[in-house]
Design goal:
The chain is of the alpha+beta class. It is built from 1 helix and 12 strands, in the order H-E-E-E-E-E-E-E-E-E-E-E-E. Strands 1, 2, 5, 8, 9 and 12 form a 6-stranded antiparallel beta sheet that branches. The chain is globular.
Length: about 160
């Protein structure tokens, strides 16, 4: 009986050790520099409500991907969205206008859905190489005709190392 118990305990320890080793491989694999979400008050995104995200690049020899994250309800009335993105590296700023398609021609949402909410991770820059190490920021503002733009749940930025 004691031998059986010892054998079972040793198996549990071996399984636990294998699990911990496997999990530690994934813990070290996070390549996100920043992954933010900002809730939009009352689901109304106004022109004045800019989303600002600051981050630090420690290795500018690697390429990075910069994404705009968006969640809206099924009551969002457009099939696209226009935004202005202001990329800042301290003293320099570059502004780019983006249009992202959010729905097919038949009205079916392209984002992943969970109930009444649809989520998107939309590329702004891929394989981008920062000119130097240091602090950067991305400021996002809505650039649609409606002010406020209704049924926008939250917004964010994802900056990660390119794979």
């Amino acid at each position: 009986m004691v031998q059986t118990i010892n054998l079972l305990l040793n198996k549990k320890r071996a399984y636990l050790l294998i699990f911990l080793l496997g999990a530690s491989l994934f813990w070290g694999c996070t390549s996100s520099v920043i992954d933010s979400n900002v809730k939009v008050s009352e689901r109304k995104w106004t022109y004045r409500n800019h989303i600002v995200n600051s981050f630090e690049i420690k290795d500018n020899t690697k390429p990075y991907n910069i994404y705009f994250k968006l969640r809206h309800t099924a009551d969002y009335k457009y099939s696209n969205i226009f935004i202005l993105a202001h990329f800042k590296d301290g003293k320099n700023m570059v502004t780019k206008r983006y249009q992202f398609k959010l729905a097919k021609n038949d009205g079916e949402w392209l984002g992943s859905g969970s109930g009444n909410i649809f989520s998107y991770v939309l590329p702004m820059q891929t394989n981008y190489r920062f000119s130097k190490n240091g602090k950067f920021s991305v400021e996002i503002e809505q650039n649609m005709r409606d002010n406020p733009l209704v049924e926008v749940v939250d917004l964010g930025i994802l900056v990660e190392e390119s794979k």
